[in-house]
Amino acid sequence: MINIQRRQWLVGLSSMAAAGFIGPAAALLPTPKQTAGPFYPTQLPLDDDNNLTEVKGKNGIAKGIISDLRGRIVDINGRALAGLRIEIWQCDANGRYRHPREQGSKKIDDKFQGHGATRTDASGEYRFRTIRPVSYPGRTPHIHIAVRVPSARPFVTQLYVAGEAGNERDFLYQQIPPEKRNRVTAEFNVAATSAFASGAELQAEFDIILHRRDGTPLQD
To answer: pTM, whole model, 2 decimals?
Structure first.
C-alpha cells in the first residue's frame, strides 16, 4: 500500500494557468496533499495501462462518461520532468472500487480497469482515458492520483470535479483552505474534436508541480 508520508520532497497538483507566474523568479504553487484512502489496490490489475475504460480480454467499454484526462509534470519553475510514473485509481460508474474491503452493493463493472499508470514523455506530458468520477456514499466524485519520484516516497492527492454540489459537503475537500481548492479541482468540459473523435465525451486538464521541501527546484 502507498505510504503517503514524505521525506525530502513535496509535490502537488495545480492548474498552472490558475497559479501562473507573478514575475520571472516566481515559483508555481504546489497543491495540498490528501489521503490515499482505504482502497488503493492490494494487487494491481494485469491490464494496467493508461486506458481504464477497456480491459484486455473483455468485450465492450466501461460504463460512465468517457473522459480524457491529461496534463504535464513540471518543477516549480515550469521545467518539464520526463519519465515519472503517475498512477490514478477511482471507483467505477456503480461506485465500486477494486479492493477486498470495499463492500458496495452494486455489481462491479468488469469492463472498468479501476487503476491505471503511465509515465511522462519528454515534454513532461501524461494522459489517461477514464470516466468522469462519480460519487459513492459519503464522498463527492474524485480521482486518486499518485506521483512516484525517484529516491522519495510517492505523493498522493485527490482530484475533484469543478461545480459538484457534493464538494461543499465532502469532509476531505473541506479540509483544504478555500484559496487552495482550485489546485485540486478540474473542469470536465465537452471534449475537443480530436478527443471526441477517439471516443471521449469530456476532457480535463491538470498540471502537476513538484518542488523540494527546502524550496530549491527539482532537477530532471
So the answer is: 0.83
